[in-house]
Design goal:
The chain has eight helices and 15 strands. By secondary structure, the chain is an alpha/beta fold. It has two domains: 125 residues, 3-Layer(aba) Sandwich (Rossmann fold); 102 residues, OB fold (Dihydrolipoamide Acetyltransferase, E2P), CATH 2.40.50. The longest helix has 15 residues. The radius of gyration is 22 Å and the shape is elongated. The relative contact order is 0.08.
Length: 242
């Protein structure tokens, strides 16, 4: 069984999807919304597995909706506008239904849904949304078991390289990012997060104290983790000393 929500500003569009869903008893409709703001509320409340999502709607676009979700479901876009198709697949949507579409075309979209691995698609969607952001985010989506959850960057104490990935360490939990530490460094606010080692980025607001040695520094974080400042990143610390 997979939980489904329909988001479309046109009643006829929502009704058509509901009619086509009758052929799929394992897709359970939980609710619907006719605008972006209500869509965010209902998706965050019910945590569906799949959302049929319109793009141009009152309040916010379908792409804006995705950026406000606590957990990312699989997405099948349903829209009358073909100019968004490329962007839809850049965020790894399962499919892009261009209105008006037939029952056979709807069937193809559902078949693609069952062929795809949910977690891999969700991870790709979250990664793309993170990468397309032009401003420094205050929240990001990261992996937590089989789901993607939202964490506030202000809660991140430090970032640690983990092979081709990165660990984001908070007081409560350690999360895994699909991006390497150098990529994350480019996306984080440099006035708050600074690189101190090839494998470490720290949150300046979480620094407890700094211990200076003859040729190096150790930084004690708020959770008592100790991070070594390597020689190549020493200037990043010295710039903060007055």
């Amino acid at each position: 069984m997979r939980k489904v929500i329909i988001v479309d500003d046109e009643k006829a569009g929502r009704q058509l999807i509901k009619e086509y869903l009758e052929d799929y008893p394992n897709l359970i409709l939980l609710g619907e919304a006719n605008n972006g703001v209500d869509a965010v509320k209902i998706i965050n409340e019910f945590k569906p597995d799949l959302v049929f999502l319109d793009i141009q709607m009152p309040g916010m676009t379908g792409f804006d909706v995705l950026k406000h979700l606590e957990e990312l479901p699989q997405i099948i876009f349903s829209t009358a506008y073909d100019q968004y198709a490329l962007k839809a697949f850049e965020v790894h949507a399962v499919d892009y239904l261009l209105k008006p579409y037939t029952k056979d075309r709807f069937k193809i979209a559902v078949e693609r849904l069952f062929q795809n691995q949910e977690t891999n698609k969700a991870e790709g969607l979250a990664s793309s949304l993170l990468m397309e952001s032009t401003n420094y985010p205050s929240k990001i989506l990261v992996q937590s078991q089989n789901k993607l959850v939202t964490i506030a960057l202000e809660d991140v104490i430090r970032v640690e390289a983990f092979g081709d990935y990165s660990k984001l360490i908070t007081d409560e939990k350690t999360y895994l990012s699909n991006y390497g530490i150098s990529t994350l460094e480019e996306k984080l606010n440099p006035s708050i997060f600074i690189r101190v080692h090839r494998s470490s980025i720290i949150n300046l607001n979480k620094v407890k104290e700094l211990n200076k040695y003859t040729k190096s520094y150790d930084i004690t974080m708020s959770n008592e983790d100790v991070v070594r400042v390597s020689r190549g990143y020493m200037d990043n610390i010295k710039k903060l000393m007055y």
